[in-house]
Amino acid sequence: MATIDPIALLHRLLKEPTEGSWLEFKQSNQDPKMIGECISACANAAILAGKERAYLVFGIEDKTKRKIGTTVRLDGMKVGGENFINWISRMVEPRLLMEFLDFTIEGQQFSIITIEPTYDRPVRFSGVEYIRIGENTKKLADYPPHERSLWLATGRHKFEGAIASTHQPSHKVLKNLDASTFYKLLKEDIPSTESEIIRRFMREGFIVDDMEGGYDVTNLGAILFATDITLFPSISTKSVRVIKYVGTDKRKSEKPEVEGKRGYAVGFSGLMKFIIGQLPHEEKYIDGIRNLVPVYPETAIREVIANALIHQDFTITGVGPIIEIYSDRVEVTNPGNSLIEVDRIIDERRSRNEKLAATMRQFGLCEERGGGIDKAIIEIEETNLPAPEFSSSENSMRVTLFGPKEFGQLSKAEKLRACFFHCVLQWIKRDPMSNTSLRERFRLPQEEYQAVSAIISESVKKKRIRPADTNQGNRNARYIPYWVS
């Protein structure tokens, strides 16, 4: 993040009640080794404190915080003939975003080093990790509890907390983020003052104080509430694309693709209405009234799309979620492979973007933690659609929902996939799958017992399912997923 106004930054830092582990004031100490150790120590302390930046300030008297000026000029310093900035950038690892600011206030010189931790791992100087203990810089290895906490903290920092845009005045924040939708989703009245909204957005983690009299918008705030995500470079390629094709392949699209420009929370309702309108519909009588309803359950469509938005890998640049509608199926693809084996996608829970997931659930835009895919597959079974297909590759995850097919039209692979997912759902209900339950899933009569039995036998043979009891007979046989211990 580039510092726009170093003088405003200095005045803001001087308002801190104490020097703090992530903020150090110096007078005119130009020892490169000391500076390097302080950079490591303050950067690591910032990670522990959950700060986006650490600061090393020259020209301020310690304790009193009186402005006395400094002889330090970072841009002109040398270390053995090498420019100091080049040297320190080489000696600190991993490579950090650092700014070296030299400026003057009323004839007095000041300098600030701003440090952005990478949050990949603890920061080292000359191969050694340091930490601030009180007002002292110590080797991290000498403080095992701090070292453990630091490694845990580096693993917790996620894309959502990084900065999407910097140094925004409050009125511009509220121009670029849709506050009215935020309060509407929460079913709350929007406050009458701008300052109340800003404070709420800070508590929610959508913006942070930039220490210069403005605000930084986080990726979380931008991806959820941007009025136009192209205003934020870090998420500008994460818009949702919808393409509808003629027929079952990509040769011809029905119309130009549609690309959403609004944040996910702001645009989700409109996105769902648009997609439902593009899906094939069928006539159904509901309470005696003829209605046109989508052939795909709306709940399944919603949960699969929400899942793609939430669990995508935002570090993969240049691509966002894609929804492709064919005459016989819908494919939803997101960047980033599945964090869970596809065979465990129903019963296991893991999220790439916890804050994003929690906020979407808070707004009621998806199911409670991890339950969306379960509910989608239940809806699919209840409407007698083919089982969905989950395909995970190195850089993407695709979920395919299939249109209606009679049992006799299903391929062998489709029958086996339906058998497996039905078995998982039954196991979750603590009611192991049987021939009867699978026949009901396929809407087949009693006389189709043998056809279903063949599917079960093939699934056992391929080790997709196994008998719930090794000594069970054929009459009351029950089955569980292969991975159940």
Question: Quick gist of this model?
Answer:
Helix content is 34%, strand content 21%. With 485 residues, the chain is of the alpha+beta class. Helix 2 (32-49) links the parallel strand 1 (23-26) and strand 2.
Rg calc: 29 Å
| Widest sheet, order of strands | 15-14-18-19-21-20
Distance between the termini: 50 Å
CATH architecture of the largest domain: 2-Layer Sandwich
Provide the CATH topology of the largest domain.
Answer: Heat Shock Protein 90
Sheet with the most strands, sense and barrel status: 6 strands, mixed
Question: Any overview of this molecule?
Answer:
The chain has 4 domains: 6-157, Methyltransferase, Cobalt-precorrin-4 Transmethylase, Domain 2, CATH 3.30.950; 163-234, no CATH class; 237-404, 2-Layer Sandwich (Heat Shock Protein 90), CATH 3.30.565; 409-485, Arc Repressor Mutant, subunit A (Orthogonal Bundle). The relative contact order is 0.07. The protein has 485 residues and is of the alpha+beta class. The two termini are 50 Å apart. Strands 15-14-18-19-21-20 form a 6-stranded mixed β-sheet, with helices on one face. Strands 1-2-7-6 form a 4-stranded mixed β-sheet, sandwiched between helices. The chain is built from 15 helices and 23 strands. The protein has helices at residues 6-14, 32-49, 84-91, 144-156, 170-176, 179-185, 194-204, 219-225, 264-278, 298-311, 354-362, 372-382, 412-428, 435-442, 449-461, and strands spanning 23-26, 54-58, 78-79, 82-83, 92-93, 97-105, 108-116, 124-125, 128-133, 136-139, 163-168, 207-209, 215-218, 241-244, 258-259, 281-286, 289-294, 322-325, 329-335, 389-392, 396-402, 465-467, 479-481.
